[in-house]
Specification:
This protein is α/β, with parallel strands linked by helices and 119 residues long. The chain has 5 helices and 3 strands. GO terms for molecular function: ADP-heptose-lipopolysaccharide heptosyltransferase activity.
Length: 119
């Protein structure tokens, strides 16, 4: 998170409105297919979303926005409740994520924290 020490972990520490406010103020969100990714889509924040077993065609951000979906559909098992990680998720490397984030660099917009959706 921009402006926070790199060792800051906010998991379980924020109320939903505070969490949404942080996402709304971000200039880029990198997330698995979780609430953070869905909030980024809702606020129009550029995002890199990593998918494993769930199909991004059904659960991912719209193709029209500043979003990149990373997955390997050819390896997807599709069991979202499996005890083992889906191979489609494991196929995504840090290099893939960094490349996707860098490709969205021109779409980043920095704005003060307001919690308001972007236009």
């Amino acid at each position: 998170l921009a402006g926070l020490p790199t060792a800051t972990v906010l998991a379980g520490e924020l109320a939903l409105d505070a969490f949404a406010g942080i996402i709304a103020a971000a200039d880029l969100v990198i997330s698995a297919d979780t609430g953070a990714a869905h909030l980024a889509t809702a606020y129009g924040i550029p995002s890199v979303v990593i998918f494993g077993p769930a199909p991004p065609e059904e659960w991912g951000p719209p193709a029209s926005g500043p979003h990149i979906v990373l997955t390997d559909a050819s390896q997807r098992l599709g069991d979202t409740f499996s005890a083992i990680p889906d191979p489609a998720l494991l196929a995504i490397t840090p290099a893939h994520v960094l490349e996707a984030a860098r490709s969205l660099d021109g779409h980043r917009v920095i704005r003060p924290l307001t919690g308001e959706p972007r236009d």
